[in-house]
Write a structure and sequence with these properties.
mainly alpha; 16 helices
């Protein structure tokens, strides 16, 4: 199927290539001058190169020049762009392309890893999560993972966002995956510890905070939450030591918790987390 599809494309653009050979023509230069047809021809050339020897750079060239041809008003480029958008979203693709040939995952081959774009989506998702727009943030993290399935940070961030929305199961799955991909990811252990803490698995939380602190000894939040988990588990001395260290690292709430524990006003912790 793939070979037939490539031959169809070659046949479709063969006439244009023959015309180019009759006079000097640099399609990339013409495209840089906003020639929509030239941009589409460049996209086609990248596509053919990608199918001869798949490489992320050729796929990126195919996508970039297709997008530009559409932006400049080429209808065929826009039709192809629509197909690419549907493919990226995981929906079935049936938009005509080159002699009404349909694009599907088998025809186009596997989409190459695109770490640069994945990082951009992950960064935008982080900004949205910081603004407490967790639902939209998760959509960006989904895209980041689609573009780079081994992006441990994207799984970690998505797990944190799911946790904020009350999806503890989804959060735990994502954080487990983040740690599987990157066993040295301190933030993932911290976030999983927090989910364990909310699920009242205090021993699981303590183990995760142990690892988080081992990897990042300056994380005051990990000390603070490990202190709470220790206190609820009956280890008052260990809790006070952790909270004191958290305070030294800038977590002012830790001193308030120490005061509540020392004055016997920490019953709310037992009621809620035990």
């Amino acid at each position: 199927m793939k070979k037939v599809f490539v031959l169809v494309i070659v046949g479709a653009i063969g006439g244009a290539i023959l015309l180019w050979s009759l006079k000097p023509h640099d399609p990339e230069t013409a495209c840089s001058n906003n020639d929509a047809n030239a941009c589409l021809q460049v996209a086609k050339s990248y596509y053919i190169r990608y199918h001869k020897l798949p490489s992320p750079s050729d796929w990126d060239g195919f996508v970039v020049f297709t997008e530009k041809s559409c932006r400049l008003g080429n209808k065929e480029g826009c039709s192809l762009q629509e197909s690419l958008d549907k493919k990226s979203s995981g929906s079935a693709v049936g938009t005509p392309y080159y002699n009404t040939q349909e694009i599907n995952n088998k025809d186009l081959g596997p989409r190459p890893v695109d770490r640069k774009s994945a990082l951009a989506y992950s960064n935008r998702g982080t900004i949205k999560a910081t603004s407490e727009n967790y639902t939209d943030a998760i959509q960006d993290f989904n895209k980041a993972i689609e573009l780079d399935p081994e992006n441990a940070d994207a799984y970690s961030h998505r797990g944190a966002a799911k946790g904020q929305l009350g999806d503890s199961t989804g959060a735990m799955q994502d954080l487990n995956k983040a740690i599987e991909l990157d066993p040295e990811n301190a933030d993932a252990y911290h976030r999983r510890g927090y989910i364990n803490f909310l699920l009242k698995d205090n021993q699981g939380a303590i183990q995760d905070y142990n690892k988080s602190i081992e990897l990042n000894p300056d994380n005051g939040k990990s000390y603070c939450l490990r202190g709470l988990a220790r206190f609820i588990s009956g280890d008052k001395r260990g809790a006070l030591l952790d909270l004191s260290k958290a305070g030294e690292l800038g977590e002012k709430v830790a001193y308030e918790l120490i005061n509540k524990i020392n004055t016997g006003n920490a019953d709310f912790l037992y009621r809620y987390f035990r």
